[in-house]
Write a structure and sequence with these properties.
CATH superfamily: Bacterial extracellular solute-binding protein, family 7
CATH class: Alpha Beta
Radius of gyration: 20 Å
Order of helices and strands: EEHEHEHHEHEHEHEHEEHHEHH
CATH topology: D-Maltodextrin-Binding Protein, domain 2
Helix content: 40-55%
Number of strands: 11
Oligomer: single chain
Number of helices: 12
Number of domains: 1
Distance between the termini: 39 Å
Strand content: 15-25%
Length: about 350
């Protein structure tokens, strides 16, 4: 789905449930786990991750410490995954873009216009996550509990009230995002491939005139100060998680690994709650600072949804399997049946009336 830059990294970003296999003695030398993320210092993601790191250090009596290279210090998410494989990093807190570089099938959770509520996302993702964890483990990675970026909107310098308006934009496109690339191609949108660290300067220079992301990512990365408008239509719900190489985890004693896992699970649950509130607060901040929320016309929503359904089918066998898509749709519909009626996806708040 459309992956936010986040900060995306943020997004993304789950907090660490690490599992190790070794019988390393508890009195061995301290272990430092090196983790990269796009999440900026001071952002809601880092607030939760830093607190988890402190808890882990305390619980393990200093035997395990987590060192974060935040704010894209280690490059973009492609760089993170490459450096983990080379042993230059131990892991990373990434968005689904980074996760897809390990196993792309996880993007089935982010197909545009797939979900109507965060509760649907929780229900489906919780059902699917154990399967994804097994796939990541086969590829040498521990996939920790799910993090979050949130609902993703278009942010632009000029008003977007139709697909024609959207086609007139020079839109940032995360170059490694095959799903977004397929959606842009289907809609004949003018995508400009860039890494997340390049977006802010490109909005300033005019190289791009629009981007996409969650409100909290837009505020954390300062993109919101370079745009004037945001669509009320959320296109997708972006996720993230922390991954750690299994080789790195062999350094840990079993008791310390258990502490990491327990703290990680609790932190990841807290992270989702924190990011949901932070997104609501960020929406209000954007409106207060002059960003106008443009009510997306029903015709545009319908056309976007129609094209999304076609892209959903086109990506079978390319990004995810038919079985994966069937499972996601089955769980989504199961949730809707249990809850009778799906709640509408949250629209961004309207601009306050002039006094």
């Amino acid at each position: 789905m459309i992956r936010m830059t986040k900060v995306l990294g943020l997004g993304a970003v789950a907090a660490l449930g690490l599992i190790a296999n070794s019988a390393r003695p508890a009195n061995a030398d301290p272990v430092e786990i090196r983790l990269a993320t796009l999440a900026p210092s001071g952002s809601p993601w880092m607030a939760v991750l830093d607190k988890a790191a402190d808890e882990i250090k305390t619980k393990t009596e200093g035997r395990v410490t987590l060192k974060y290279f935040e704010g894209g210090q280690q490059g973009d998410e492609r760089d993170f995954v490459r450096k983990i494989k080379l042993g230059q990093l131990d892991g990373a807190a990434v968005t689904s873009i980074g996760l897809a570089m390990i196993d792309e099938s996880i993007r089935v959770l982010e197909v545009p216009m797939l979900f109507s509520s965060a509760e649907e996302v929780d229900y489906v993702a919780d059902k699917m996550w154990p399967s994804f964890q097994k796939r990541f483990e086969k590829k040498g990675f521990k996939l920790n509990d799910r993090g979050e970026v949130g609902w993703v909107y278009f942010l632009s310098k000029t008003k977007i009230e139709s697909l024609a308006d959207l086609k007139g934009q020079k839109i940032w496109q995360w170059g490694d995002d095959q799903l977004v690339g397929a959606m842009f191609k289907k809609l004949s949108l003018n995508g400009v491939p860039l890494g997340v660290p390049e977006v802010d300067a490109s909005l300033t220079s005019g190289r791009i005139t629009a981007a996409y992301g969650s409100p909290v990512a837009a505020v954390a990365l300062q993109w919101y100060s370079k745009v004037k408008f945001m669509t009320s239509m959320p296109m997708s719900f972006a996720i993230g998680a922390t991954v750690v190489s299994l080789e790195s985890l062999k350094k840990l004693a079993p008791a310390d690994a258990k502490s990491l896992e327990d703290i990680g699970k609790a932190s990841s649950k807290k992270l989702r709650k924190v990011i949901r509130k932070a997104n609501e607060d960020a929406k209000a901040t954007m409106v207060k600072k002059g960003v106008t929320v443009v009510q997306t016309p029903v015709a545009m929503v319908d056309e976007f949804t129609k094209n999304s359904l076609e892209v959903q089918k086109q990506l079978i066998g390319k990004v995810y399997s038919q079985d994966d898509l069937d499972a996601v749709l089955k769980y989504r519909d199961e949730f809707r049946a249990k809850n009778k009626k799906a709640a509408p996806a949250p629209a961004a708040p309207a601009a306050p009336a002039a006094k």
